[in-house]
Amino acid sequence: MLAQLYHDVFLEKRDTCATDNEYDGAHWGARISAIFVIMATSAIGTFFPVLASRYSFIRLPSWCFFIAKYFGSGVIVATAFIHLLQPANESLTDECLTGPITEYPWAFGICLMTLMLLFLFELIAYHIVDKKVAELGQNAQSHSHFGDEALYTKKEFESEEDEEAKLETAPVTDQQETRSNYPSHFAHADEHQDAEVIGSPVEDKNKEHYYGQLLNVFVLEFGVIFHSVFIGLALAVAGDEFTSLYIVLVFHQMFEGLGLGTRIATTYWPKGKRFTPWLLCAAYTFTTPIAIAIGLGVRKSYPPGSRKSLLTNGVFDSISAGILVYTGLVELMAHEFLYSNEFKGEGGFKKMLTAYFIMCWGVGLMALLGKWA
């Protein structure tokens, strides 16, 4: 079946699909402006959370990050189902397609395969991290999958010893406030490290937690960027619907960037990787504008409704959907709501419900944008 599908996609000569696009030459100035406007809104969404979490002159209250974090989670989940999986299914079930592609719901199948493959990768990553920790001599009491790190650091790369020293000398009320403002993430229990291992390689978060965080963030970035390429190409060659698509994509990219940027901002980055978050933000910021520019360059020859375009868009949207479904449901919902320490203690359930309703707003608004794009 897969061999025949490969033949159908790459070797089939017969093409009954469209060989042109709807580009009509109108709104040329607006099409050029889309490159810069969407670049700006994408940058606002991704870079601002990182900047606000690092520099005191634009430091925001913790509740702003709280809203951005869970609103962004909702955006990612809605993007997976409304903006990726459904368009992928439409592309792979287009009436002009023939052959094995029409004999199976490939959009959902590819999404499912991607999801299962990601789960395998995470199992392997957990095994590697646990093995590294075991080799360093960490005991069971300090065991943690991908760590118990502070989400919003007050200094760019403040060490745990400095933070603990500040907490020990601070009043009790200040300690409680600080810990509530900077909750832990990816922690599955109240885990700690014994005093005798502090300062040893075992205590080094760079080695213990960085690989898991890197995997999660890069997987999310990978899924989002694939999607951004195709919507940029689609906007460049759009016809009568260009104006409405332009407006919707401005908000779409900003909301999606907010979801990605918040995740990047709330990830612990060691000193040796200080440029990584900026590179991730820049990659998202420039992907769609570059795709728009390429689309304008091939505006008279790029056929978004052709057989190969439909199959390519459908396959990659399905892969991206699988990535974001897994990331959204497992990492952004299950881990954060059920397994983290953020909602434990007095008032934790009320805080959890607040986060849930904020996430619902993110889901709802992003799903609503799917009516137009």
Automatic annotation (TrEMBL):
Q: Might you name a Gene Ontology BP term for this protein?
A: zinc ion import across plasma membrane
Region Disordered, annotated ranges = 163-182
Compartments (UniProt record): Membrane
Membrane-spanning segments: 28-51, 63-86, 106-129, 214-238, 278-298, 310-332, 353-372
Q: Which UniProt keywords apply?
A: Ion transport, Membrane, Transmembrane, Transmembrane helix, Transport
Matching entries from Pfam families are given as: Zip (PF02535)
MF GO annotations: low-affinity zinc ion transmembrane transporter activity
Membrane-topology descriptor: Multi-pass membrane protein
Question: Does Cell inner membrane show up as a keyword for this record?
Answer: no
Polar residues: compositionally biased ranges? 172-182
Which Gene Ontology cellular component annotation is one that this UniProt entry carries? Answer: plasma membrane
Question: Known InterPro entries for this protein?
Answer: ZIP, Zn/Fe_permease_fun/pln
Recorded family membership = Belongs to the ZIP transporter (TC 2.A.5) family.
Q: What is this protein called?
A: Low affinity zinc transporter
